[in-house]
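Retro notes, item 3 of 5
We never archived the inputs for the NAP complex last cycle. Fixing that now. Sequence and ligand:
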Amino acid sequence: MSTALVTGGTSGIGAEFARQLAARGDDLILVARDAARLDAMAAELRATGVEVETIAADLSKPRDTQRVAKRLADAAHPVDLLINNAGYGLTTKLVAPDIDEHDDAYAVMVRAVWVLSAAAAPGMRERGHGAIVNVASIAGQLSMGGYSAMKAWVLTYTESLANELHGSGVTVTALMPGWVRTEFHQRASIRSSSIPDALWLDAPYLVRQCLRDVERGKVVSMPSARYKPLSFLLRHLPRATVRAVSRRISLSRSRAAS
Ligand SMILES: NC(=O)c1ccc[n+]([C@@H]2O[C@H](COP(=O)([O-])OP(=O)(O)OC[C@H]3O[C@@H](n4cnc5c(N)ncnc54)[C@H](OP(=O)(O)O)[C@@H]3O)[C@@H](O)[C@H]2O)c1
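Structure as it came back at the time:
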């Protein structure tokens, strides 16, 4: 019997992780801000026969993140799989004088990933098994503002943590989604009509592939034959070309939104 904690487990990719983990018999701990949605998701999953805890927490608030960390570090109720998934797209430009949106996003997509992994990993190492999944993004290989920078951090951090835990029985995996149909684009006011149909990924497929990669101990999970060559190119093209591609994508988004 395994227990998994999923941040952002009420919608999109996180909800899909929760459903697939429940389907294989894992008990779950779901973390998100909206308590009513947490309750609804917990009821849906309990109906499949697993146990579900919920923690209403805003991961942009260090005190809330600390509550989740405390649960992860509870040796009496071990967590075997941590999925750092909560996150969102950003609308503010880097030159905007008000950095509140970036501050909050940093707390959710960087700081919380670090604090929660640091809370979960020691117990996992002691028990000799466990897994951590950090949801990064192909956007981390582009140069598209604060979101790209934070997702690039997630990838580098994951690879570093995997090195630190190498040989301990604990695996660490960065999931690199491309575009996935979830609430993400609507929440960030991104007009998804500017994204070609061929580039959309299906959340159930993405999560299935990721869980398979976790079983295999892969450090980077890059589901989809469409995105693998794209990611390879982004790693090998001159950075000036990657910056030019990033400018074009950003421009097409702002045109679509205007
Ligand atoms: N969809 C894509 O195309 C795509 C592509 C690449 C990477 N990703 C990454 O995938 C992850 C999941 O995104 P998604 O597409 O599934 O988006 P989503 O459908 O909007 O789900 C986001 C989840 O995160 C939770 N969340 C947001 N802010 C939070 C906060 N401050 N504290 C706690 N929970 C919070 C939300 O619940 P509450 O609102 O109730 O808090 C929700 O459960 C993110 O890290 C995103 O960057 C998405």
